[in-house]
Write a structure and sequence with these properties.
single chain, about 475 residues, mainly beta, 15-stranded mixed sheet, 5 helices
């Protein structure tokens, strides 16, 4: 059985979901969809329209392949195209939805969706043999209490990345990561293979990037597809709350990155989420320089801390392809009880971490009564002794051009030239609501490392 939908998209349908509903009788073994639209380019510059097809069944969403040229999915019981979930083809109402992420002037895009219902199951291009073999046999990763470094944000060709799941794992291992998260846009279709391929060679963190029209966010520790569409009376703050209550770690992604039309939806624009219930924000996305606007994100993070929110800063390479030798990317260094997804996310939730392009950091505060706090911890108000430390994290690190800056409530409180294996002390009086963080910056201003803060006060006073 074949069904065809045709239509026309105007500028008024920018940032909307356009559903096309169809019924599936019992006994269908597979669905195949073919989606085409014209023109692909608006004829202005080199930025195309950006349309994706999401498929929803009676029992929930079956996936999408965000911002990928292949928008012709097959969904069957035992196999589905990348971006989509295999499983029984339930009888009932289905929907093929056009996610209109970008329509550029003058608009006027014609489209055609052809849906074929097949009695038999269909297969597809199966993963390459290398993608069905674990990346490394045996348990090669470090375990136990300690510092672990890795990436919390990246993509495969199950959304708009260029790497297969196997290549993604191998790339993470080649960069020396202890752990890596997979956060494809609006789908989790690669997670099972991702975990299988990693074997015991590297810790894997499941996740998904909620890629909406007004901002992106990471749901870490999540195995299933999250309802990412903010519509029909729902709010992003309500969605964030529900995810956190279900145990996910919610991260506002690249909040100050350049937005439409260059990166539609990338700049954070949710007025109910500044920061709302979010407690994690990605302040270093991709390389430090360029269109990521990372320094703006750091200042936004500082402003939220000053407003009394107990925030945690994270980094993400936002990998879509091999990164090469660009030194401007950061990793998350997390002090966890073990190198597992659960323990890493638990430590990250408490801010026991820092972000760095290489140098290692240490930050400790000691109160007069002997209480001691490290990154992410609370210390009582009163006289404090702050000890800040830094050292080169690799053979290629050059600290000679860097300066260590102690940040107190968003302003510089102390500055020291960096040398290999150095530390500094700072004594002060601190009131509730005060916080301290450590930056390593190049003399020209570029960030090389940033600690999470030590907070002054008691639980709930004043920290939200």
């Amino acid at each position: 059985m074949k069904q065809v939908f045709e239509g026309w998209l105007t500028l008024e349908q920018m940032a909307t979901h356009v559903p096309h509903r169809f019924r599936v009788p019992p006994g269908v073994g597979a669905l195949s969809l073919t989606f085409s639209f014209s023109p692909g380019h608006p004829g202005v510059g080199n930025i195309p329209h950006q349309l994706s097809i999401s498929v929803h069944g009676p029992d929930g969403t079956r996936g999408t392949r965000h911002n990928n040229a292949d928008q012709n999915p097959v969904i069957s019981t035992r196999w589905a195209s990348p971006g989509y979930l295999a499983g029984p083809i339930e009888a009932g109402e289905w929907s093929a939805e056009i996610d209109v992420h970008r329509i550029l002037p003058p608009g006027g895009v014609s489209y055609r969706i052809e849906i074929v219902q097949h009695a038999e199951e269909l297969g597809g291009d199966q993963p390459a043999t290398s993608d069905m073999t674990p990346a490394m046999t045996g348990d090669g990763r470090r375990r136990g209490p300690g510092w672990y470094s890795g990436d919390l944000h990246g993509h495969t060709f199950h959304s708009d990345g260029k790497l297969s799941p196997s290549e993604y794992i191998e790339h993470a291992r080649s960069r020396g990561y202890d752990f890596v998260a997979l956060t494809d846009h609006n789908t989790v279709s690669a997670l099972s293979q991702f975990r299988q391929l990693a074997g015991k060679s590297i810790a894997t963190i499941p996740g998904m990037e909620l890629t909406t029209f007004n901002g992106h966010a990471l749901a870490l520790g999540r195995e299933d597809i999250v309802e990412w569409r903010v519509r029909d009376g729902s709010t992003m703050s309500g969605l964030a709350r529900s995810l956190q209550e279900a145990g996910s770690l919610y991260v506002i992604a690249h909040p100050r990155r350049e937005g439409h039309p260059f990166c539609t939806g990338c700049r954070w624009a949710y007025t109910d989420m500044l920061p709302g219930p979010a407690r994690h924000v990605e302040v270093w996305s991709g390389p430090w320089t360029g269109r990521s606007c990372n320094d703006e994100a750091v200042q936004l993070y500082y402003a939220w801390l000053n407003s009394g929110y107990r925030m945690v800063a994270t980094a993400g390479t936002d990998t879509h392809r091999r990164l090469g030798d660009n030194p401007g990317y950061a990793v998350n260094c997390i002090h966890a009880r073990d190198n597992t997804s659960e323990e890493l996310l638990s430590a990250l939730s408490r801010g026991h971490s820092y972000i760095t392009s290489g140098p290692e950091l240490m930050l400790v505060a000691e109160a007069a009564d002997g209480d001691r706090a490290e990154m992410g911890d609370l210390v009582p108000a009163g006289p404090l002794r702050i000890v800040a430390g830094w050292k080169a994290g690799g053979a290629d690190d050059n600290l000679a051009e860097l300066e260590a800056r102690l940040i107190r409530q968003g302003k510089e409180a102390g500055r020291w030239p960096c040398t290999r294996g150095s530390e500094a002390e700072f004594e002060t009086q601190a009131d509730p609501g005060c916080w301290f963080a450590l930056e390593l910056r190049h003399r020209s201003g570029g960030l090389h490392a940033l600690s999470n803060p030590i907070l002054v006060g008691k639980e709930g006073e004043p920290w939200s």
